[in-house]
Amino acid sequence: MCRIYASTDPRMCEAVTRSVRINGLVTSIRLEARFWDILDEMAAAEGVTTPRFLSVLYDEIMELRGEVRNFASLLRVICTTYLAQRPQRQRETVELAV
Q1: Could you list the residue range(s) of the whole structural domain that residue 45 is in?
Q2: What are phi and psi of 26, to 5 degrees?
Q3: I need a surface site. Which of 30, 32, 79, 97 has the fewest CB within 10 A?
Q4: Is there a domain that residue 1 lies in?
Q5: How far apart are CA 55 and CA 93, in angstroms?
C-alpha cells in the first residue's frame, strides 16, 4: 500500500507560487503543484479561470465569515473536500445520463 503513495512524483510536492488578483489586489499564493492541479480542475468544472475561481471563492468566504485567516491552508482543505466528494459527483453524473 505505501508504494502507491511513496511513488508519488516528487514534482507534485514542489511549492509553486502564483500571482492572482483578489478583491482588486494582486497577491501571491504558494501551494504544492498537486493542489494547483486540483484547483485548475475545480475552476474548469465551474467554467472559469483559476484566478477567477479563487477571487469568487475569496469573496464568498468574506461574505459568509467576514474574514479569511489563512487562504492557502483553506485552499488545501477545499481541495481535499473536493476529492472526497468526487465519487458522489461521478455517481450523480451517471444517474443524470441514464
Answers
A1: 8-97
A2: -85, 130
A3: 97
A4: no
A5: 27
Over residues 26-84, the pLDDT tens digits come to 999 999 999 999 999 999 999 999 999 999 999 999 999 999 899 999 999 999 999 99
3-state DSSP percent of the chain in helix, strand and coil, to 5: 65, 15, 15
Assigned domain for 54 exists: yes
For residue 15 the three cell numbers come to 511549492
Q: Is 27 helix (H, G, I), strand (E, B) or coil?
A: strand
Task: Look up the CATH number of the domain holding residue 91.
Answer: 1.10.3990.20
Matching residue, cell 511513488: 7
Number of domains within the chain: 1
Q: What global pTM score does this model have?
A: 0.82
